Amino acid sequence: MTLLSYILAGLAAVAAGLINAMAGGGTLITFPVLMAIGLSPVSANVTNTVALCPGYLGGTMAQSKDLGNQKKRLWIVLPAGILGGFAGGVLLLMTGEKLFSDLVPFLIILASALLAIQNPVRKWLSRRQEEGSGKLISEAWTFLPIFLAAIYGGYFGAGLSVIILAVLGLVLSDTLTRLNALKQGIAFVTNIAAALFFVFSGQVNWMVALVMAGGALLGGAIGGKLASKIKPNVLRLIVVIIGFTIGIIYLIRNIFAS
């Protein structure tokens, strides 16, 4: 790793922190940069997960007030997130470099698509709330879909928040604010569970992870101050375009390499 590599990783993390604070989708920036500076696909994904964990903590703490009165639900969804995140991490390390490298273009395109539908999902939830739609199933059954979503989160993670929010909107009848807070908590424990597993995997590039963690925290602080000056929808559209472009480039490269 050269000094330039660390600088690029740090700058990507700053951008990711800013993007996550305002629109979401920062992984679509950091993951390709980590691969570009020489990390293997699995190592890049593992390092990225560990490095960006502090950002999830900040988002969860910011909405802790709306989590405090949902303790019964938390006893259902948080264990699901933890177990799913751990299972996704195990699955990632069992996949192997070649297969994961082949899956990377599709994962990036999927994550970009999830980010693209984030606003429609929120609008659907708002309409559902206004119509007074009741929950479709018992809250206890929330465990299973959250567990499955968390497996994806532990495996790759980008776009996880959109999946979780959609699942919560289907099975729970509540305000968007409270569901969003629940989503933050689930995403946090999912990433923490995967990151704790990755710590002992030998795949984390710790110097890069530390540089990125600092950059992500800085980017998050900058994003908070720029929130009123930059339209989240515009920023999200830029990230989606970048994500789709990178995914297609990787897909074409894999086709010609095989």
Give a short overview.
With 258 residues, the protein is mostly helical. 81% of the residues lie in helices and 0% in strands. Helix 1 (3-22) runs parallel beside helix 12 (206-226) and helix 9 packs across helix 11 (176-199).
Walk me through the structure:
With 258 residues, the chain is mainly α. It is built from 13 helices and no strands. The longest helix has 26 residues, at 232-257. The protein is globular, with a radius of gyration of 18 Å. The model has no long low-confidence stretch (mean pLDDT 85).
How many strands?
A: 0
Q: Give the N-terminus to C-terminus distance in angstroms.
A: 27 Å
Structural class, by secondary structure, is mainly alpha
Name the helicity range: over 70%
Keyphrases for this structure?
globular, 258 residues, single chain
Please outline the helices and strands:
Layout: H1 3-22, H2 27-36, H3 41-51, H4 53-62, H5 64-67, H6 71-95, H7 97-116, H8 118-131, H9 143-155, H10 160-171, H11 176-199, H12 206-226, H13 232-257
